[in-house]
Amino acid sequence: MHVLDKLEKAFHPRSIAVVGASENPFSAGSPFTKHLLTYGYRGKIYPINPNQKEVYGLMTYPSLKEVSGPVDYIICCISASHVLSLLDECPQKGVEVVHMFTGRFSETGVSEAASLEQEILQKAKKLGISLIGPNCMGLYHPKEGISFAYDLPKETGPVGMLSQSGGLAGEFVRFAQLREIFFSKVVSYGNGLDINETDLLNYFAKDSETKVIAAYIEGVKNGTELFPTLRHAARLKPVVILKAGRSSAGVKSASSHTGSLAGSTEIWDSVIKQAGAIQVKTFEEMIDMLAGLCFLPPVLGRRVGVVGGGGGVSVLSADGWGEAGFDPAPFPEEIREMIRENVPPMWWDWIGNPVDVSMMPESAWTTGLTGNILRMMAESPAYDLVIGNVSIGAPFGKDQMIGWVGGYADEVIEVAKKGSQPLAVVLDTADLRIEDFEQWRWRLLAEQRSRFVAAHIPVFSSIAEAASTLSKLAEYYQRRKEITKPSAG
User: Fold this and answer.
1) What three-state secondary structure class fits 366?
2) For residue 208, how many other CB atoms are within 10 A of its CB?
3) What's the angle, vertex CA 436, arms to CA 432 and CA 439, rounded to 5?
4) What is the β-pairing status of strands 212-217 and 278-280?
5) Which of 25, 144, 187, 345 has a CA that sits 20 to 30 A from residue 102's CA?
6) By three-state DSSP, how is residue 257 classified?
7) Cα 100 vs. chain centroid, distance in angstroms?
8) Selection from 383, 367, 455 nearest residue 413 by Cα
9) Tens digits of per-residue pLDDT, 429-440?
10) What is the CA radius of gyration of the chain?
């Protein structure tokens, strides 16, 4: 069976054996068994432990060979020295994929551990078994009730992720949930001894549940195979890559974490760019990028319309978007005419893009002029992208501020539903502490941010963050357009 077919079977197993299952919360086998129960896995669960008769209400088996039925997938939580014996028992149960949570192999830098790792690989190949890991958290597939961590969402989504780090993968899923980003499947693959980043990119490229691919990679086993695979995947779906191990300290850390060879930064930059993937440098930037890919229509140009904020915010907006390569384009005639009809003569010609709401006459705050400008920008072919700035700088007291900010949020959400252009929001809630939610101003901003997130409008904490992400998206869609352009003749 091909490795992609084996992965499909692992993601949709009829039965799972947890070898090393236990109720001891500090043992490796305890959470894996518990997750299958709490996340609602519907298949058969076989806890394997020769020293216990029952684990979380499930009958245990002293060994894999004692299990009464076939086993599609194994989660291996036993010590490294017992893995070879476990592999010998797999063929008679029909096991073709083993997730090795078990670690202490090549990542330790100890030659004997690295030799044992290679011995395990050779035996697995001889027996027709594919390995995920070792030294990894394995699979998260919410649709099937399979998880490798506590408190991951049960909702499914369009993002498929491959990650050499299991802890980072779990953390990433939790932070992404705060932005309403959910996952089809996630694989933590650790040392990548057998199934590696190339296999997983191939899998996600073909997976019908996955629309966007995210990858955290420390190093690769075979760079020659990776490039054509990455290029193929990027032609089918957006691929966002966070490459770790870029500095000398990072290279050393990657080697001790997953036993990976990180490779030079220059080579990686070139490979990712030539393949047509999107490179990010931080955890936060990857979440921003996924929000843009999941919730925005394609950003097909750099003419940006910006509405909201006072004078200083508007000047900084003009600088930030301009420095990122965007053009805060002047109003087309139909927007100028609408403004002329709705404000006194002394005001209308002062208003430009970015729209400084502090220059608005008093009547504009109550007539929804800012929302109308935003709506017309979103419907106008003069703009490729529209941004709503939500600021706390307005000179209002509590009641007026709550009314204006809430009303503007209503308008932004309504425009996002109907507008034809991509729309995002810049709203900085600062570094809120729990006690800050008792102060109405900060609570108000946090509430509006939550409303935008629930409406699937990407929210950025700063102009620089928004401009950087959306600039990369514009570059990505331009490259895709050139790649898919029909050749002449």
Assistant:
1) helix
2) 6
3) 135
4) unpaired
5) 144
6) helix
7) 24
8) 455
9) 888 899 999 999
10) 26
